[in-house]
Write a structure and sequence with these properties.
The protein is α+β, with helices and mostly antiparallel strands and 317 residues long. The chain has nine helices and ten strands. The chain has three domains: 119 residues, no CATH class; 40 residues, no CATH class; 116 residues, Glutaredoxin (3-Layer(aba) Sandwich). Helix 1 crosses helix 2, helix 1 runs antiparallel to helix 4 and helix 2 runs antiparallel to helix 3. 17% of the residues are buried.
Amino acid sequence: VPFSLGLALFLVSLEIVLGIMLLIGYKSNFTVWSLLILIVLFTFLTFYSAYFDVVKDCGCFGDALKLTPWQSFTKDLVLLVFIIILFINKHLLKPVFLNIAQNIVVMLTIFFCVILGYYVIHHLPVKDFRPFAVGNSIQKGMEIPENAIKPVTQMIFIYEVNGIKKEFSDKQLNLIPTGAKYIDRIDKVIVEGFKPPIHDFTIEKNGKDFTTEFLNEPKVIFFLLYDLEKAEIEGLQKLNAIQVLAASKGYKVIALTGSSEKTIATFKTEYDFKFEFYFCDATALKTIERANPSIIVLKNGTITQKVHHLDSDDLIL
């Protein structure tokens, strides 16, 4: 979605700034009205997300604290109650500091949010809560414990009966009337089951899976380019030099991308890339690091280094 990253940064910063404004009693009428509008909006969105199963987990706290959509909706309901109480009693909110001190605190908060947002977009997160953080083993992140909850699904058959689509479970097949027209079959999830932290990471080429092979390498570097057509030119221009240096130090170097074979061929010709490209789901690559491109160094599947292309000079090979 265009501007989604900027909008996300704005909303996160707005919540922090409004929280500080509330704590110090700054412009209480504006602050409480803003909080009320925000929480009503978020309560509606989280209910919609939970009821219609739009997303599987809430992004409120990212990977730092995982919440299901219904947990997120419950959280927003609790906040809504407290904010309504604040709204009713907003006349009781008094400034903690003098006017000039309050202005300084709010300005510093805005400045901090902008600087921190800029830094984490153009470098690495200050604290990486993702399963692909430096020091984590990808293999361990993909493991499923023996006693893990198993997924339970039910086959649902969709038939058209007298012009109306009806669903029948695999135990109701004898109820399908004669003359009904088969439309589709879906698998309905009854129990989600255990999902490992890393569940969609694969390294593929020409229909073959090379994941295990590369994760067992003692010295390997991955160039991550989730979408070649959206990659930063400055970053692309650095990759050949990094590959040459890494190869001289005994590293295997490959690129992982979610782009098509046609796009890969175009970029290999344009930039004279000498390393091989392998397919990996674009969402999985963005989970590892949103920079496009970014670079990670692994030792037997454990991530030892991870850098944004702007920080490629910090690589230690």
